[in-house]
Amino acid sequence: MVPNNANSFDLDPVFQFRGTADGSFATLDEDRNMPRLRSVVRAWLEDSSENKKPYPFKDPVKLARLQNKKTGVKHCKVIDGFHRAEALRRENVTTIAVEIEDMSGKEAAQRAAKANQMHGLPASPKENANTIKRLIEGGAVWKKDGSLMTLREIANDLMGGTLTEQTMRNTVKRVAPDFYRQHYGRDAQPIQAGEGKRAKREEYDNEARAIFDALRLLVDRMSRDSDRWHREESAATIGKLLDETREKLAEIQFGEDEFSRPLDLNTDQDEDTEQPF
Hints:
Layout: E1 2-3, H1 33-46, E2 61-68, E3 74-80, H2 82-90, E4 95-96, E5 98-102, H3 105-118, H4 125-138, H5 151-158, H6 165-175, H7 177-183, H8 195-223, H9 228-251, E6 267-268
Parallel strand pairs: 2-5
Antiparallel strand pairs: 1-4, 2-3, 2-6
């Protein structure tokens, strides 16, 4: 049992894989799940019998303990039990049963996606599509060895076996058509262990070279411009762009970033992690 507050763990929406109508990050289900779970908690609180259960829910809330690479700070995120944790908070239950496990940000996202499919009310087709889209965009469909999951593996390992392989194929084709053509289409080349990271590095390198070539052509055209003021203004703009690029490059933490999402998933597993509670 741990304190049921933000100092103990976060209800981070990045790990809540249920989509809203507009495809944005999921929110708690205030119409169905929350009323049902709060009524369970209230009934438990009001129970004064000798046979009262020690806890209102059968399963504990599961937490992923993550370490931020930049700051070194370790904190827990809910990956299974968002609605249960919030229902307990709203009914002023001050302690909560949890299971804590150290893991990376990518593994936390993978586990959260599967848990969201396996527990609670069944996900709608739109919610499934949003989950799959977020998993692809966030890089959670790549294995630790750098290889890409097959569609069957995504269906089983990330979606909890709730979708058939054909449904998965159709959904990926719809929500990420370019990704599908590149990796699962008829002419796609399978990526073996270790090749995924190399492919990404090569892609970045090619993009950088293309930008460099375009910038070089721009400078060449600018040097031939008859308007001196125009040349000086353009040169100043390019110089500022280069300075800002150098500053941004200096901020990059080069290494094997496990996962990247709009919210911070820049985390690693740490064998020496201490209990924060």
